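Justification of computing resources. Each target in the renewal requires a structure prediction run like the one illustrated here; the chain below, 487 residues long, is used simply to show the kind of job we budget for.
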Amino acid sequence: MHFFLPPALGTLIIHTAIVVVLALRVIMMRPATGVALAWLLLIATLPFVGVVIYLLIGERRVGLQRERGVSAIRLDYRMIAETKPWGELSDIDWSRHGPSAAGLDRLGRKVAGSPTVHGSRLQVFGETLDVLGAIAEEIDRAKTSVLIEFYIWSEGGAADGVLEAVIRAARRGVSCRVLVDALGSRPWWKSRQPQRLRDAGVLLRPALPVGVVRSVIGRTDLRLHRKIIVVDGTVAWTGSMNLVDPRYFKQNAGVGEWVDAMVRVEGAAVLMLAATMIGDWVLETGESASDLVRALCLGQMKPQGSADVQVIPSGPAGSSDGLLQMLLGLINAARSELILTTPYLVPDDSMLRALRGAAGRGVKVTLILPEKVDSFLIRHASRSYYDSLMDMGAEIHLYRGGLLHTKSIMVDGVMSMFGTVNLDMRSIWLNYEVSLFVYDDAFAAELRSLQQSYIADADRIDPAAWADRPFGRRLLENAFRLASPLL
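Resulting structure tokens:
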């Protein structure tokens, strides 16, 4: 006697078993409650499809080898920070700052192994073409080494000037290492420019290569979103700008030219930025970090300037919620003024509450966002948060001059965050980012001036008019917000 299960029943049993197994896995992984419930709903309501989506992007899988590598690099950061002269440079006179600054320093040491260092000079640049020209000139003056890592490199315009400068540097004997994200720069990797760099003697690697094997070992959407240039171990650049000329980049996206800012760094913080890039290089190539530091003459850096700077590298491996903790600490430290710029605003519950709480206790909270965003999903999900922020008194300004891509936070004219991180969950949880936490009133004033220039070219949202927008728009925005834990 043979027993046959009806196909529909068999499929139901298999689906139920898979849902139970994955539900147990989600529960034991202990993600945020909203994220967990979103995944459980998706897995249960979309037979097999939801399972495949979860296996692809449901966990921050970076692979065991990379996880170990990141842990080793963080240990190296701690060891470097405790040795001379770095141990002395991280001996900060915190009486120059408020109590919140010292607390953030302690937090950064715990979550990223990165101490605040004294003796840096920073200068903000808000014009992309000026930045590209200055970087090319910097590389043309290089004598020993050039380190470059970017999420996007795109052909055309002034970005090609940087390429030519790197080629010239390599041909005159400067050691050049370039790391460019494999997915973010996919069109560039198919161009002739990578081979031109290699022919000149540049050591070039794709960061986080994608492929079938990589998809099995780890997620392919965990990207290197950092932007760092270090020249001769004495000067560094970082910020929101990719290696692109905005006059040539994504001209068909309908959002105008991208508007970015970078900071030029001299002094102690340069080595910490170099260490971040070297760590990424070591993970991709297996080279020795200590050998690289010696070969690139990075130990010759001397303190310059009076700014105290903490470099916080973050990513899906090793740092858990460290970057989020730092951002929350900075927001909660505000007592009088808090100005934020970001292209993508999709905060989690903790950040939303921190921003609302700051506005509610009397801090003047100002968010400067682009009027047009290149992501349909994020554009509508982001707008669903405006009501709750403005209800507590926060001001929201929509920038008209293009896609405002600068990522910055200024607190009370004394502390700042400037770097590559967007205020969305992809940047905070999934991407490899680098952020400068700067404890210096001069830099805060310079950053505030840049932010005010954005406000001058923006329209403030009227809360009453925003509340009267059509029901269909509000429904669409709130529907996309449901997906925000998965963005």
